[in-house]
Design a protein that fits this description.
The protein is α/β, with parallel strands linked by helices. It has 3 domains: 190 residues, HUPs (Rossmann fold, 3-Layer(aba) Sandwich); 64 residues, SH3 type barrels; 80 residues, Beta Barrel (Elongation Factor Tu (Ef-tu), domain 3). The longest helix is centred in the first third of the chain and has 20 residues. It starts with a strand and ends in a 10-residue tail after the last strand.
């Protein structure tokens, strides 16, 4: 099989390329550039950030790795599309007091979309595209569809970031690390001499202040509690996210959390942990990854943030591209703009963007 591998130069993508080559596939590698040469944004502090300038040294190291494996190597510039799609969404969501997930959009629209379009335009021929993501794809012969599933290693599972992949994308995608434990991947990487044993891994999306990407001057406003009492001041609501605890600059007998952001009045509303309970959330822009509905009488597992272990909930389909989540136990920090992904065991059923997540406790004066 002719396989094009997305190669970042990190441990996971390098081992994925090696495994495919060892399996006898005809492998070529491609690196996706997303940092524009004339970017108006400051370079991130962290050198392991995903959105950062790509150095000639990095590309030279990747090219050397490909030469060692005996596979052709290509570099494709997707920076313009990244700015228009991912960064535009990122900025718009923050200015609407929502918290976006850029990795979800990048995967569906850029890495598994635009990048492959550009590769074909360049004349590259391949039967499948592979990455170093930790996830699995199976085919359900009875339903005639491809299914996205969690990786074998639960600590590294990345299915949450991949739920928006279409059936066409799943049909032509390979995840060579889906059945691997991360510890074994690292051992293989070191044994083959691809990276040093203490290799630092990426990565956050942007290793700096996210407000740099929003590009809006500070606008001081009030930090208030649920009654409207002013507790402090802030530099602009877009500097905060729901559930945030640190950096509020307010002394209180118990930890305070950001419970709501009011973009119209530039308010940051905070409260104690038990005041942030949320029993429901509404989800829109839904992708029916492997099923087009739910059994209303059963409990599914939902993840409302990437680091979540999952929470039990009942799900009701409310439209062609929407559903409502009713948590079995009140949740906290459910954030509009983030993704909500529904699982049946290790199967990704569907996912979408959290549109509403009301607090159980009424906000009286805000």
């Amino acid at each position: 099989m002719r396989v094009l591998v997305g190669l970042s130069g990190g441990i996971d993508s390098s081992v994925a390329a090696y495994l495919l080559k060892e399996a006898g596939h005809s492998v070529e590698a491609v690196t996706m550039l997303i940092w524009a040469k004339d970017s108006p944004y400051p370079a991130p502090v962290s050198p392991n950030s995903c959105y950062a300038p790509a150095s000639a040294e990095d590309k030279a190291q990747i090219a050397g790795f490909c030469s060692r494996l005996g596979i052709p190597y290509h570099v494709l510039d997707c920076s313009g599309d990244f700015v228009r799609t991912v960064l535009a969404n990122f900025r718009n969501e923050y200015l609407q007091a929502r918290t976006p997930n850029p990795c979800v959009w990048c995967n569906a629209r850029i890495k598994f979309g635009v990048l492959l379009d550009y590769a074909r335009m360049k004349g590259l021929e391949f039967d499948a595209f592979a990455t170093g993501h930790y996830a699995r794809i199976t085919h359900n012969d009875e339903l005639g569809c491809y299914e996205l599933r969690k990786a074998r290693d639960p600590s590294k599972d990345q299915s949450y970031f991949l739920y928006r992949l279409s059936q066409n994308q799943l049909a032509s995608t390979l995840f060579p690390l889906g059945d691997w434990l991360k510890s074994d991947v690292r051992k293989l990487d070191v044994a083959q001499g691809f990276h040093a044993e203490d290799q630092v891994e990426s990565q956050d999306f942007y290793g700096g202040d996210y407000s740099d990407l929003v590009g809006r001057a500070d606008e001081p406003g009030d930090i208030v509690d649920l009654t409207g009492k002013v507790l402090g001041r802030h530099r602009g609501y877009w500097h905060y996210t729901l559930g945030q605890r640190r950096g509020l600059g307010i002394a209180a007998p118990q930890p305070l959390y950001v419970l709501k952001l009011d973009s119209a009045r530039n308010l940051v509303i905070v409260g104690y942990g038990d005041e942030g309970a949320q029993s429901t959330c509404g989800v829109s822009d839904v992708v029916w990854t492997s099923r087009e509905g739910f059994d209303g009488d059963r409990l599914y597992t939902v993840k409302v943030r990437s680091a979540s272990r999952g929470e039990e909930a009942r799900i009701e389909k409310t439209g062609a591209s929407s559903f409502t989540v009713r948590f079995a136990s009140p949740s906290r920090g459910v954030t509009p703009g983030q993704s909500c992904v529904v699982y049946d065991g290790d199967l990704v059923v569907a996912g979408g963007i959290i549109e509403s997540a009301p607090l159980d406790k009424e906000i009286s004066s805000c």
